[in-house]
Write a structure and sequence with these properties.
It is a single chain. The chain has one helix spanning 33-45; strands at 4-13, 19-24, 54-65. The protein is an alpha+beta fold and 74 residues long. The radius of gyration is 16 Å and the shape is elongated. The model has no long low-confidence stretch (mean pLDDT 92). It starts with a strand and ends in a 9-residue tail after the last strand. The chain has a 3-stranded antiparallel sheet with strand order 2-1-3, with helices on one face.
Length: 74
């Protein structure tokens, strides 16, 4: 598994029974709340490009993974 940070955004869509999630690999680990909100607002403003247009943000989180390699030769 590679080390890194992903930004995961979940939105409610125009269709009341659908939610959509966008995952951005290689996200900036130190992203601020203001930066994330700006991205969310831009995605909602440009919703016509999506198959399931985002209407409101439901959640936003970063997921950080790390990797540990074990020496099994000993």
């Amino acid at each position: 598994m590679a080390e890194g940070t992903k930004l995961v955004l979940t939105f409610a869509t125009a269709s009341s029974d659908k939610a959509t999630t966008f995952t951005f690999r290689y996200a900036k680990p130190g992203a601020t709340t203001a930066q994330v909100k700006a991205l969310i607002n831009a995605m909602i403003a440009n919703k016509e490009i999506y198959e399931y247009p985002p209407v409101t943000a439901k959640s936003a989180k970063t997921v950080t993974t790390s990797e540990t390699v074990y020496d099994l030769s000993a």
